């Protein structure tokens, strides 16, 4: 019989994030990123930062994946065991294969796997395939500071999140966002410009796609340390639990 340490070692080798509940986990979240975030901002890439935030979830196995793994980290075997897939992409959207996208879409629509899309993943192939629209924003400029505001304090994604919090300089994504009308927009934001002007925009949006739930979280530029912020981390933990299929 394998010892606990041997089991843990095998799980790390297979890509599981170190989580004290991993052996007894009943749920599985895969956090995917492409490996292009600056190392001086995200030493272990964005999936490492998000994975670290999620490892406190009770009963969840947190698995890190990236584009360089076999089947680009989203094999049929892996997706078949996954309750929620978190995706951050930016520079390598076109390198994601159509076959990988088709597997993801199938598991969301037919099997109820949750999908969480982060920041520049609005242009990711899986995000666009699930939305069925161009997924463009009105502008993309690093020129303002951002304050995120809870719009619906009763929404599960907002549980334990401060009513508003500042994240400093960011890449501004301006409305409109070319997607189907969301079922809920629990979070919004205000951009503050140097000249005193402000601009509101959508920040967190929710849909049901087939049998699966989908959440898009707008902030998270790779040169900003937003994924280390405690409120952002709480939003991501809440989103994972919200997006998970009922069992």
Account of the protein in words:
This protein has helices at 4-14, 45-54, 76-80, 98-109, 125-131, 230-243; strands at residues 27-33, 60-66, 84-88, 114-118, 139-150, 164-174, 184-192, 198-209, 212-217. It is of the alpha/beta class and 247 residues long. A nine-stranded mixed sheet has the order 2-1-3-4-9-8-7-5-6. α4 (98-109) packs across α5. 45% of the residues are buried.
Name the features.
single chain; about 250 residues; Rossmann fold; nine-stranded mixed sheet; 9 strands
Quick recap:
By secondary structure, this protein is of the alpha/beta class.
Secondary structure elements and pairings:
Layout: H1 4-14, E1 27-33, H2 45-54, E2 60-66, H3 76-80, E3 84-88, H4 98-109, E4 114-118, H5 125-131, E5 139-150, E6 164-174, E7 184-192, E8 198-209, E9 212-217, H6 230-243
Parallel strand pairs: 1-2, 1-3, 3-4, 4-9
Antiparallel strand pairs: 5-6, 5-7, 7-8, 8-9
Helix pairs in contact: 4-5
């Amino acid at each position: 019989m394998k010892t606990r340490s041997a089991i843990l070692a095998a799980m790390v080798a297979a890509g599981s994030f170190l989580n004290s509940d991993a052996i007894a986990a009943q749920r599985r979240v895969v956090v995917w990123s492409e490996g292009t975030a600056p190392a001086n901002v995200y030493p272990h890439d964005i999936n490492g930062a998000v994975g670290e935030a999620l490892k406190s979830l009770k009963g969840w196995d947190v698995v890190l994946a990236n584009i360089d793994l076999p089947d680009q980290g989203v094999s049929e075997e892996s997706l078949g065991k996954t309750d929620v897939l978190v995706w951050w992409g930016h520079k390598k959207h076109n390198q994601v294969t159509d076959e990988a996208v088709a597997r993801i879409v199938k598991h969301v629509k037919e099997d109820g796997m949750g999908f969480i899309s982060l920041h520049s993943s609005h242009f990711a192939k899986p995000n666009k395939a699930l939305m069925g629209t161009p997924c463009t924003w009105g502008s993309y400029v690093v020129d303002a500071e951002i304050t995120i505001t809870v719009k619906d304090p009763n929404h599960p994604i907002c549980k334990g999140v401060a009513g508003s919090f500042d994240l400093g300089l960011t890449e501004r994504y301006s409305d409109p966002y070319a997607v189907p009308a969301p079922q809920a927009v629990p979070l919004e934001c205000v951009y503050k410009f140097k000249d005193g002007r402000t601009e509101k925009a959508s920040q967190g949006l929710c849909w049901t796609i087939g049998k699966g739930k989908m959440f898009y979280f707008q902030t998270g530029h790779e040169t900003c340390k937003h994924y280390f912020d405690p409120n952002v981390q709480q939003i991501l933990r809440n989103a994972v639990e919200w997006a998970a299929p009922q069992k």
